[in-house]
Design a protein that fits this description.
disordered N terminus; alpha/beta; binds 3'-phosphate-adenosine-5'-diphosphate; single chain; three-stranded antiparallel β-sheet; 45% helix
Length: 315
């Protein structure tokens, strides 16, 4: 796929449309903003995806820890640290995403690959759009989120890898405004997080909710919790050792040093290079980029959206 390939504007002119950056546009679909590149594939996921009861769906807003969780889920479910898959394969290739790969490449048909005992599939589609589909089977959902300011700063850096960024930059000021207004791919961020979180509170056996910061703080604890949720707990004498090994093999230091993840080549599954998914993986890096007034602006929305609804997170 060519980097940020041009898509035809959506034929239905009644659909709400907003500029993202440069000549990239977002379209409103069922209350969320979808990038034109993934609008049709997102609709096809809703129409045609049939989750199997054994599927594990990794859901996330972009830049909140998707790549990390892909590595962790693969390792927990397939115990891949024992067979080196992560050394030679980018996590996004080991675990395909529904709207950015599978349904994009299959022209909208359910690719229905079943060569694995457990299919792990990624998605950025908001629960408001994909919830009914995911509830049509007993599949499990793992959701990861991240501090809003670090998420935004990570996205802003990521987009700088796009060639057209340099021709027509996406300023940090514009990015902050768009983040606060919810007009970013798969946004609003706050609605995305709250909907999956609410489901995890209602049905903790169906939806597992974890934050990037919790993973950083105590990876072993979260991996143990995740393995229990997935029905594949670590048992026996070496349990703690195996958990430790997984946390280490999926940590930023280890993963970002594999040749495949350092590569500036563009993978088949995404229009930006392999290495664009690994920057520094830190908590609190927004402090190095956001001005105090930007932090204030985002924190005000965080209080209004998260804190007011009982989720004291993100500040
Ligand atoms: P995606 O949603 O487009 O797949 P995602 O993986 O969620 O992106 O986000 C990438 C971020 O996760 C980057 O954060 P940064 O820009 O703040 O550095 C990336 O560095 C970070 N990341 C990737 N792998 C790991 C990891 N193993 N541990 C911690 N952070 C990681």
């Amino acid at each position: 796929m060519e980097a940020f390939a041009h898509q035809n504007p959506h034929p239905d002119s009644a659909i709400q449309k907003q500029k993202w950056f440069s000549d990239e546009f977002l379209y409103k679909f069922k209350g969320s903003w979808i990038w034109s590149t993934y609008l049709e594939s997102t609709k096809k996921v809703v129409e045609n995806f049939k989750p199997l009861p054994t599927d594990v769906i990794l859901a996330s807003f972009p830049k909140t820890g998707t790549t990390w969780l892909k590595a962790l889920l693969h390792s927990i479910i397939f115990r891949s640290s024992e067979e080196n898959s992560l050394i030679f394969n980018h996590p996004h290739e080991l675990i395909p995403s529904l709207e950015t790969k599978l349904f994009l490449e299959s022209n909208g048909k359910d690719p229905a690959f079943t060569d694995q005992k457990v299919r792990i599939l990624g998605t950025h589609i908001p629960y408001q759009i994909i919830g009914d589909v995911l509830n049509s089977s007993d599949c499990k959902i793992v959701y990861v989120t991240r501090n809003p300011k670090d998420t935004l700063v990570s996205l802003w850096h990521f987009i700088q890898k796009a060639k057209k960024f340099h021709e027509d930059p996406w300023t940090l000021e514009a990015a902050v405004d768009q983040f606060c207004n919810g007009v970013l791919p798969f946004g609003p961020y706050y609605d995305h997080v709250l909907a999956y979180r609410e489901e995890s509170l209602k049905r903790p056996w169906k939806v597992f909710f974890v934050t990037f910061e919790e993973l950083k703080d105590d990876g072993n604890k979260q991996v143990k919790r995740l393995a229990g949720f997935l029905g594949c707990p670590f048992e026996g004498e070496n349990a703690e050792e195996k958990i430790e090994e997984i946390v280490k093999s999926c940590g930023f230091e280890t993963l970002s040093n594999h040749e495949v993840n350092k590569s500036s080549e563009t993978p088949e599954c995404f229009p930006l290079p392999y290495n664009s998914f690994f920057r520094n993986g830190k908590v609190g890096d927004h402090e190095n980029y956001l001005k105090p007034e930007m932090i204030h602006q985002i924190d005000a929305i965080t209080r209004q959206k998260f804190h007011a609804s009982g989720f004291v997170y993100g500040i």
